[in-house]
Amino acid sequence: MKQTSIFTAMKFENDLILRAARGESIERYPVWLMRQAGRILPEYRAVRSKLSGFKELVETPERAAEVTVQPVDLLGVDAAIIFSDILVVPEAMGLTYEMIEKKGPWFNQTISCEEELKFAQTDFDIEDRLGYVMEAIKLTNKELGGRVPLIGFAGAPWTIFCYMTEGEGSKTFSKARKILYTNPTLAHELLNRITEVTIQYLKAQIKAGAHMVQVFDSWAGILGDVQYAEFGLKYINKITEAINEVPVTLFAKGAYNSVRDLAKMNCNTIGVDWNMKIDDIRNVVGDTRTLQGNLDPCVLYSSHKEVEMLTNNMLDSFKSKRHIVNLGHGVYPDVDPDKVKTFIKTVKNYEIQY
Ligand code: CP3
User: Around Cβ 149, how many Cβ atoms within 10 Å?
Assistant: First the structure.
């Protein structure tokens, strides 16, 4: 699978996650948390409170690097993930967003017709508009000094399409889904454009120093499998075909019926949410891909003892060494960091059977 000499040659103090992604031998399961940078740490909020808000933090490489490294120092995770957001891509294409406190993202302008495709540009230089992310990646690697690998990321085209057409979060994303029925030509044009920019963006992150990349399709589960194949998988496949430099993780939340197709793609790791059963997914995927997940994020609201027990139950359900431990979705903002530490400690103490 994917590995390039310059990356395999890179020496890390701890490269467990890269070995697990490639299916190589590991002494224990690696562990990190989606949304570990930001959200739960008081140290993150302290950095953020000195700035005007979330966007300034994302766009200030020194501060973004600082909060990226915090979970490595404070929680002991086996990988860092660059502090940024999937929404920097639509912004670079021409749709500015605001992050509204306690509400989430908000786009003033959205795309609902051909005329508005002028807000979905592709003919720009990635470094020009997103150079701050690449700068943050370089600074983070300096601060990490090879302790653990750094994960780069982007939203999958379908999830980015949802925000570009809906303009904000939604329970149903019915505006986004309406377009698939009323104007599929527009949908495919927009998805193609997002895909093109995303490939360039991921390649720029890798060039700047991302050692693996994850594609987040947070809203995969709101499409039926036939529509997801046409408007989701098709474009994810274009991305995986283009990225050969580093291991790739695909996290398509809720896409139970599409796991078989995801596992045929040029990727190393499949993200699994907590509604999926590891056993079933392993049966479908076989042992040619690594699985990442899948503890229910709400487990971290229970007692330390229960966190330990439920984490061990999950680990006992693994029948292979091809696992990266994570939650089944991002960590929730009001979770006690000490519970996260118990989760991580439990994984680190677990004796691997394979
Ligand atoms: O994983 C990490 O820690 C790296 C940083 C990261 C952020 N967003 C920082 C962030 C990553 C990987 C993301 C991905 C992201 N952003 C996704 C896909 C993953 C998922 O959870 O499904 C999505 C759908 C978004 C869009 C987004 N960004 C929303 C809906 C919101 C508001 C609500 C929320 O999730 O907190 C954000 C804001 C955001 N992105 C915050 C952080 C730390 C909170 C902003 C703050 O500090 O107040």
Answer: 28
Burial class of 348 by CB neighbour count within 10 A (0 to 12, 13 to 18, 19+): middle
Residue nearest to atom 1 of ligand 1 (CA): 35
Ordered by where they begin, the domains of the chain are 6-349 (3.20.20.210)
In this structure, what token pair is assigned to residue 216? 């987040």
Q: How far apart are CA 109 and CA 98, in angstroms?
A: 11
Q: What is the DSSP string of 177-227?
A: HHHHHH-HHHHHHHHHHHHHHHHHHHHHHHHHT-SEEEEEETTGGGS-HHH
Does any ligand 1 atom lie closer than 6 A to the CB of residue 105? yes
Q: Which one-letter amino acid corresponds to residue 136?
A: A
pLDDT in tens, 242-301: 999 999 999 999 999 999 999 999 999 999 999 999 999 999 999 999 999 999 999 999
Nearest atom in ligand 1 to 87's CA: 26
Question: CA 263, CA 269: separation in Å to the nearest integer?
Answer: 8
Residue 246 neighbours by CB under 8 Å, 6+ apart: 2, 3, 4, 7, 206, 210, 211, 212, 213
CA–CA dist 248, 17 (Å, integer)? 12
Using one digit for the tens of pLDDT, what is the confidence trace for 131-173? 999 999 999 999 999 999 999 999 999 999 999 999 999 999 9
- Among 15, 85, 261, 273, the active-site one is 85
Query: Model pTM?
Result: 0.96
